[in-house]
Amino acid sequence: MLIKKTVSFFTSLKLTCVLLAFAIILVFVGTLAQVDDGLYAVQAHYFRAIFVGLSLDPLQFTGITLLGHKLPLILPGGYLVGITLLVNLICAHVYRFQLTTKKIGIQLAHAGVILLLVGQLVTDMLAREMQMHLSEGETKNYSESATDYELIFQNGNEVTAIPERLLKQGDGLKIDSLPFAISVKTFWKNSDLSFRAPMMRNSPPIASNGVALDFDFIQKPDVKTTDEKNIPTAIIELTGPNGSLGDWVVSDWTGDASLVEAVQNSYMDQAGASMAHSIAVKLVAPQSVEIGGKTFTFIMRPTQVRHPFSLTLLKATHTVYPGTDIPKDFRSRVQLKNPQTGENREVEISMNHPLRYAGLTFYQYQMDAGQVAQEAGRVPSSVLSVVRNPGWLTPYVGCAMVGAGLLIQFLKHLIEFVSKRKTK
Amino acid sequence: MKTHFICTLAALAVLAAGCNRDGVKVYHVENTDTSTPPPPAAAAPAAMPATMPSGLPVPDTSTLPKLKYTVPDGWQEKTPTEMRVASFGISENGKDADMSVIPLGGMAGGDLANVNRWRGQVGLDALADADLQKLAEKVEIAGQPADLYDMAGTAERIVGVIFHNGDATWFFKMTGDPDLVEKQKPAFVSFLKSFQFGGLAAPSTMDLSQLPPSHPAIPGMDAAAATTPAPDAANVPTWKIPAGWQAAPLSQFLVAKFSIAGADGAEAAVNVSSLAGDGGGLLPNLNRWRSQLGLAPNADAEAANLPTIAASGGKATLIDISGTDARAGKPARLVGIVLPLGDQTWFYKLMGDPDVVAQQKDAFVKFVQSAKYP
User: Fold this and answer.
1) How far apart are CA B138 and CA A192, in angstroms?
2) Within 13 Å and on the Cβ side, how many CA atoms surround A318?
3) In terms of domains, do B79 and B178 share one?
4) What does pTM read for this prediction?
5) Which domain holds residue A71?
6) Span A266-310, pLDDT tens digits
7) Which of B2, B81, B208 to mutate to test the interface with A (most CBs of A within 10 A)?
8) Which of A264, A291, A318 is where one domain is finished?
9) Structural domain of B332
10) Residues A134, A368: Cα–Cα separation, whole Å
11) Residues B175 and B228 in one domain
């Protein structure tokens, strides 16, 4: 009885309609919420969520804030709507499936929609967008995330990478590859820093070792827009078998070369080139701890994904239309080397001509080259967007299946209609 | 069969929704890979940006000795914040204006760029270089001539002065309601006339390596800026200067500086500076000196065990460390003496070639002990 009820619930057309209605409301509410919360927060709280407006704490009700007004509303989130819709569709498909040519068009269109939904789920779960920043002559075998960070401990050539999301304030972490425990005393998702300049009234450093002696870090509100990014900072204490080894500040301010350069440039105007450089050098001074004869250097930095091959930027070309500043072409010539396969070849990556290699797609993303970089005395550089999306083909195949299914169905009806008229 | 399939699918879907993402990863990299980014190359000074950099910090100058000036009637003095060394609010009949004094290092982007930045703020078109001088009104700051620019927009008016003082550029700016700014312009001009720089110079003249953290400006110690008043001899201690020590040009905030030449071009230098209070504490200063020699910071306990010497009726801490000069990349030795005296702490530093420092250490200690403080 229960099974029968479950089946009839999951195969019902009413469920489809309700879910589609929720999907419409969710997209509408989610779009409005971007005004207050920004794209990334809405993606996480509305679309990559089971419920919206319900806190993770049991029975804690938060409601939805829209355009500054708090509404007592709980909605099914994107995951719940999408997955239930997928189940509903598959169930209906399986339950009502009849192997007959009469319904082949409908079956094909349904299968296409299922593939679209599955493909979207696969993309959401597995796709990853990273970046590779290269200056001319530079070689890299890793790409970096633009939004995620990690705390790494390096001992010799062994690296232990802890994702930022595990660094919760008050938490203690014990990791097998590290001979000490890490306790997170403070974690700020976004932060600012200021140099402990001789002219300042300095409060005591926020940690007793390393970069905290030269810089103060303060918490900042999380950023909402897509063209800004959060810069996380944490105060960690390391504890070995014989007690505390001390506390340190770990921050993306010290681990992201572009931020270090931004800090240097900001002080350039205020304090002159040589002092700005001294400040930048202090900012990147390595922090390390010695325990049991091993030295562990640690840093917070954008999450890195290592590749079994390397790219070297040979030339970054930024051409403009003659006599104007309007960009005509961005082009990166790279050397691709893969020691495992022995591959060693040159590839040109330009707009609309990405490099597809080892399951990754390298798109031309940003560029600092041409006359502007030359006049400013900067080494030409290029940023490649590195996308891994195992489900990239599914939208194409899904749409083709839906299109073909509908075409077959319409043509069949048309032929039937025309032949009926002829017989009359 | 179909029913079972549907139930299993529903259960799987619930599990998939709760699926977890990445955890801790351990991997190996090539030995040449380092985890820290390389220090950026020292770049040429950039022009001042169209807007001041936001989000990035500026020194808090709130503990600086007061600049000397006469505050006109009706001006409310505000706490200096961020870049401002002096800040005032003016309110009258519901209209407001703001007045700020900001020092910046170097040329700070040039006068034309800054005037055009101000003109942009009030909605005026940018000027060409040739027109700039025509618009400049002559005023006087601390007895020196300076150029005043008056820019009136419909909603806002800016009266600004750009004054080049030694290595620094000072910006005096009154901005606010057009009528109120016009009315307050004479008061602004008289404020400028009353303005005295004291010992405060722009941060560009700071020498990071010379100073302990928390170092306030020392009035009258700016030998680099020719227009600042001569050092106030009353605030400088007197010493017996050992033979072979040459007085050297002072960096900003140093009370005294000497250079010592050794054999084969080897050299060392003595710096003297002073700070209010405990100067940030012994440990941060010790560790800052250690960092100049590329040494790891000390733990607290070690700092307490440092030897002390008697000097000028007080007890001074003696620090003697060797390492590699972080700036020159050469072996170096540093002998430092930290002497708390009254409500001040004096910092003496002998640093340079290890041989020269070894030869001069006794003379250095005697030099510190010979000091007579004002």
Assistant:
1) 41
2) 21
3) yes
4) 0.52
5) 2-127+394-423
6) 777 666 677 778 888 888 888 888 888 888 999 999 998 889 999
7) B208
8) A291
9) 206-369
10) 10
11) no
A159/B46 CB distance under 8 A: no
Whether the Cβ atoms of residue B297 and residue B290 lie closer than 8 Å to each other? yes
Compute the nearest-CA separation of A420 from chain B (Å). Answer: 37
Q: What is the DSSP string of A171-190?
A: -EEE-TT-SSEEEEEEEESS
Does the residue B50 lie in any domain? no
| CB-CB neighbors (< 8 A) of B203 in chain A | 197, 199, 270-272, 275
Residue carrying the six token digits 């000036």: B69
Instruction: Answer whether A94 sits within 8 Å of B33, measured CB to CB.
Output: no
Nearest CA in chain A to B110: A269
CA-wise closest residue to A144 among A13, A301, A25: A301
* CB contact (8 A) between residue B208 and residue A80: no
A10 and A113 part of one domain: yes
As for how many domains chain B has, the answer is 2
Contact A271 B204 (CB under 8 A): yes
Disruptive mutation site among A200, A260, A267 for chain B (greatest number of B CBs within 10 Å): A200
CATH number for the domain harbouring residue B287: 3.40.1000
C-beta atoms of A205 and B284 within 8 A: yes
Q: Which residue is closest to B27 within chain A, CA to CA? A: A159
The answer on A348 and A406 residing in a single domain is no
Q: What is the pLDDT of residue B44?
A: 38
Task: Please report the pLDDT score of residue A267 as a whole number.
Answer: 77
Q: Which residue of A has its CA nearest to B284?
A: A213
CATH of the domain at B165: 3.40.1000.10
**Is A296 a member of any domain?**
no
Q: Are residues B214 and B348 in the same domain?
A: yes
Going by pLDDT thresholds of 50, 70 and 90, the confidence category of residue B51 is very low
> What ipTM is given for this predicted complex?
0.70
Q: Using N-to-C axis directions, what is the helix angle for A2-10 and B2-17, rounded to 10°?
A: 70
- For A337, residues 6+ apart whose C-beta sits below 8 A from its C-beta are A309, A310, A311, A312, A343, A344
Q: Is the pLDDT of residue B290 over 90?
A: no
Residues A24 and A102 in one domain: yes
Same domain assignment for residues A361 and A244: no
| Tens-digit pLDDT profile for residues A319-363 | 888 877 787 888 999 999 999 999 999 999 998 899 999 889 999
Pick from A6, A86, A209: which is nearest to B297 by CB?
Answer: A209
A vs B, Cβ pairs < 8 A, gives: 230
Instruction: Give φ, ψ of A12 to 5 degrees.
Output: -80, 145
